[in-house]
Amino acid sequence: DGVDERTLALARRRSQLLGPAYRLFYRDPVHLVRGSGSHLFDADGERYLDVYNNVASVGHCHPRVVAAVQEQVATLNTHTRYLHEAVLDYAEDLLSTAPDEISQLMLLCTGSEANDLAVRVAQAHTGARGVVISSEAYHGNTDTVSQLSPALGTAQPIGPWVRTVPAPDPRLAAAEGSDDVAAWFAAKVAAAADELQEAGHGVAALLVDSIFSSDGVFPDPAGFLAPAAAAVRARGGVVIADEVQPGFARTGRAFWGFAGHGLVPDLVTTGKPMGNGIPVSGLLARPEVLASFADHLPYFNTFGGNPVSVAAAQAVLDVIRDEDLQGSALRVGAALRDDLRTLAAHSDLLGEVRGSGLYTGLEVVDPDTGAGSTALALDVVEALRQRRVLTSVCGAGGDVLKLRPPLVFSHEDGAWLLEALEDAVLEVGRRRR
Ligand code: PMP
User: Fold this and answer.
1) Residue 293 pLDDT grade (very low, low, confident, very high; cuts 50, 70, 90)
2) CB of residue 215 inside a 6 A radius of ligand 1
């Protein structure tokens, strides 16, 4: 309904040519042709607000990233078996953002590859197989990490060597009589690790996204992950921080999500925001942990850390620093959540607002029951899309709006989002009645 012929034809051609595995966003799919900062433009020249994209982390088509890539691609791009200085300069630069204990960097192409390798390293280092993850986690698309991705749904079961723990939601803790999320979560992790040991898998790792993005965004209270990490280490496992979502200044609190928890992981993975859309990902490691794997297993990644990817990655790091995007994420994100809370207080469709920096989860609830509503959250997402504001959902019930724009998102962009959201929620509320 209401979708024009050209869009329908493109969507049909897409599924014919690319097959049935992919999903498009929105009942009325968006056909984008250009981007700039936190804005996108469709084939008719209409402007959209991007409130979802952490791939274009420093903004769509940032001129410094574009120039760096253009220059390098016109100079040299090759596989990764030759000496190249830029990759070493970048490794030094990126590692300088991490705690001293983490002093080696392997470069790959996707977040999935980074997590896949991190799990192999953890298993080689510990001699154990088992991994603990959160119950709605997504860690990627390889055979191994899709078994660590319950967010993919029941068609893709988690591995027998995997145990899940609930999201660190203070309300879940309270329902079990605890007002201490850190202790409650650590007890869940300890129990899961004990189960893995009893089942004979042993404990290789706790693999977590410290902002729990696909679980519905749970950043608080700061520091709550530290006791869970200690529980896993006490049982012989290592800690892998999946920084694909919270890393690269996203949370505003620190450059890395784990740093906001006062935690030094053994392995750190990253991807999406690292190259502003150019495929590049990383595994940062404590050398003694990496050695257990790399000392006896060769590893080759044709495209991982090629000169063009590294040029993009270096430009991203420079822009984050020079434009103080971490500070901006902190300020703009906090102001946005204040405004969202004010809006939520006046709307019976909006519930809890959670987040850190430019990562916000906003619950959509059923006004009759106060419980999260998947259907209404989707209606709000579609109503926002009709107003050319692009976002999506996360959380166990898919009832949490995921608001995660490029880091250059401004106060003015926030005002646009607020106005569209207020309007969208009114419309969805009206239609319900
Ligand atoms: N880990 C997390 C937390 C992610 O969100 C994603 C992607 N959504 C991945 C890993 C996988 O990254 P990629 O799609 O680059 O393989």
Assistant:
1) confident
2) no
Q: How much of the chain is helix, strand and coil, in % rounded to 5?
A: 40, 15, 40
Establish whether residue 110 lines the binding site of ligand 1, counting it when its CB lies within 6 angstroms of any ligand atom: yes
- How many angstroms is it from 249 CA to the middle of ligand 1? 17
What ligand 1 atom has the least distance to the C-alpha of 272?
Answer: 15
User: What pLDDT, on a 0 to 100 scale, did the predictor assign at position 155?
Assistant: 86
Q: What is the pLDDT of residue 297?
A: 82
Nearest alpha carbon, ligand 1 atom 12: 111
Is 112 a pocket residue for ligand 1 (Cβ < 6 Å)? yes
How is the beta sheet containing 104-108 ordered, strand by strand? 104-108, 281-285, 267-270, 238-242, 203-208, 130-134, 162-165
Q: Is residue 180 in some structural domain?
A: yes
CA triplet 359, 110, 233: central angle to 5 degrees? 70
- Please check whether residue 18 lies inside any domain of the structure: no
What band does 294 get if pLDDT is binned at 50, 70 and 90? confident
CATH code, domain with 144: 3.40.640.10
Quote ipTM for the complex: 0.99
* Domain limits for position 359: 31-58+324-432
- Tell how far the Cα of 117 is from the centroid of ligand 1, in angstroms: 13
Task: Write down the pLDDT at residue 33.
Answer: 97
Residues 129 and 108 in one domain: yes
Judge if 103 and 228 occupy the same domain: yes
CA of 138 to the centre of ligand 1 (A): 7
